[in-house]
Design a protein that fits this description.
The chain is mostly helical. 77% of the residues lie in helices and 0% in strands. It is globular, with a radius of gyration of 19 Å. It starts with a helix and ends with a helix.
Length: 271
Amino acid sequence: MTLIDAIILGVIQGLTEFLPVSSSGHLVLGQEVLGVLHGKNITFEVFVHFGTLLSIIAIFYKDIAEVFRSLLKGIIKPSGIGLLLKNDSHFRLAVLIVLATIPAGFVGIVGKSGIEQAFTNVTFVGVMLLITGTVLFLTKFAKPQPDKEVGWLSAFIIGCAQALAILPGISRAGMTISSVLFLGVSREQAARFSFLLAIPAIFGATLLETFELTTEPIDGSFIWVLIVGSIAAFISGYIAIKTIFFVLKKDTFSYFSFYCLAVGLIVIILS
């Protein structure tokens, strides 16, 4: 893998991790075009995932700090958890994120072997992109309410939507934000919850990939590939998050559907 390959794949990872077009699907397609075999660059995937994780932290560091502060309160005084759930919005947010993370964690562990096979099937990625595009188009008819927030049932439903995004071609951001909008939650809350929910999802995926790293030393020249790819993923991820907030504010989120549908059809035809 060259530095140019690293920049291209890093940018693809960063943009598509948060734009509703499927990062996993685009990485499969990008590696196919560049001739980089999937499964041979687990180390690179770990680093670019870490880059996108840093982009979320850079934007939501205040929320993250408040969530950890609230969680620490609950750990120090378990008897006060009931009051925290009622009065502390950040503690409630933390619990909702944990609840929404369970479905994806379960699917990731139980269906790991089948999911890995899906990453080698380009046609499958094309079909999943069509599904993503259809869901995004339907958000055009969603009726989000400015004052509605994520609740217990809606958090679990959003978590199930995120679990589907383990498949290449199904967008995590697309499925989670769309499901929040369908549930009537405000657009700003939809984006905020989706991106904060991405933290344990990306962190978990990065840990799983880290466990698969070989014990062989990394070649010195490849270290620069990892650094450059991570930086590219961080910068493009930061831009993508800001873009989503802008798009949701303008009520043009469904426009991404045309891109997914077009790419899906092209992939199916060419494969």
